[in-house]
Design a protein that fits this description.
88 residues, single chain
Length: 88
Amino acid sequence: MPMKRTNVYADPEDLAIIKEAAKRRGISEAEIIRQGIHLAAMANRVWDEPLFSRTFEGPGRTPSTSEVRDTVADAVRRETGPGSGSAA
């Protein structure tokens, strides 16, 4: 992907940290700055659709421990019951 040049002002202490990190990691200071710009861009991105756009039918409350346990047990019985292809 083609890059676009830009100028930014940065705190000298931040630049010193970037310089040390680049030397330690064996990569350019510019690469660390590009990674930082990418992280900032993604952290501030606004998505077209919500993350959870599907809704599910339910009782509208958090199920109790026993309801969760019963539901899981029923699913296990269906998976491991007769005719499921599992060896008993």
